[in-house]
Amino acid sequence: MNLFANFDAETLARIQFAFTVSFHIIFPAFSIGLASFLAVLNGLWLWHKDRTYLNLFNYWKKIFAVGFAMGVVSGIVMSYQFGTNWSTFSDTAGPVIGPLMAYEVMTAFFLEAGFLGIMLFGRERVGPSLHMMATAMVALGTLISATWILSVNSWMQTPAGFDINELGQFIPVDWWSIVFNPSFPYRLTHMVLAAYLTTAFVVAGVAALHLLRRNRTAEVTRMFSMAMWMAVLVTPLQIVAGDLHGLNTLEHQPQKVMAMEGHFDSHPEGAPLILFGIPNEDEKRVDYAIAIPKLSSLILKHDLNAPLDGLDTIPDEEEPPVAIVFYSFRVMLAIGFAMLGVGLWSLVQRVRGRLNEDRWLHRTSVLLAPSGFVAVLAGWITTEVGRQPYTVYGLMRTSDSLSQVDAPAVAASLIAFIVVYFAVFGAGTFYMLRLMGKPPVEGFQQSHKPIEVSTLAEAA
Predict the structure, then answer these.
(1) Nearest 5°: phi and psi at 215?
(2) What predicted TM-score, i.e. pTM, was given to this entire model?
(3) Is residue 259 part of a domain?
């Protein structure tokens, strides 16, 4: 408890929510992409009758089941915090966000739960057509789930379609405007593409590890090829979607973009793109900045000389924490361009007929296997910390959203979460690595060699 003795209740509640949602977000990101991958594999098996696709489906469905289960458990725990730590927010925004979260359960979760068992165990019991439908419904359910959750989060970022009653509560007036709020299409597209890329690089990393072990079965080479195609095709789309999302954010949340860009000062004749530096929030500048003149104006306004406002136009109490947003945004960007580079690299090697022989490509793919999770977390940090000091942007401050709780109570629950999460999800992640440790072959079972750190180091 002494570890958190100097923190107030609000800070501890924010740390706790950040901790639990960080665990939660990585599992749905993986499940969304993997569910669609399984639907594609099953469809290809039924179309071509090539048992390579069936073996890959049976291999990855076990991994999906574990990841899906951990996503459900972590999501349930996270949602309780709206009542325990953020009850004022729940009471004020509940008339809007409550129904949206209920719709997610009534549509997506019920759909996934209803067909998951058939997908995992029903191939020989229900026939190929119904089994394919079940697999497609699970994939659809993960996308519907993302749709509702992203709608909730987007409304908190760009609230619309509401009124405020005499009790100060947000009351829905136009549900179409609430669900399809100004930032929703951009956030949903960006998140779904991120999920697909996260899964693609996990699949590529697993396949590359087995290629480095000189295991070149049809299953291993096929899944590496499919993952690299996804990297080639989806990464450019994600960069374009990210750019459009950034322009939307500039329109509706300009101070978030100011923090992302590190623009403490306004630039009336074109703003530089700061590639890297050290934000100095006390002195209101970026130290040791490496910048390209006027490029930020070209990216954000498509004009080299377009003026851009800086944080000097924003009251100090309205500014987000600049350093966190600045660094997390660059981590996300760096990973995105690394993914693009690997995708183009694989395309060159595919044309040369060396996709399965280039060991440096395989080593790089192993190293980038967890990169999608890091990018998702970095993007989430950029989005959520950049929204501060608000929970509902411009309308409800985080400090006004907290429950009447004492700091020691929040600290105790936070410590309990840390211990339980690392034990439970650590064990689940270790088991998933064990499942990935054996290559997909005919009759794949569940006794596997774990992927150990020493093995990864040897492969690299």
Answers:
(1) -105, 100
(2) 0.89
(3) no
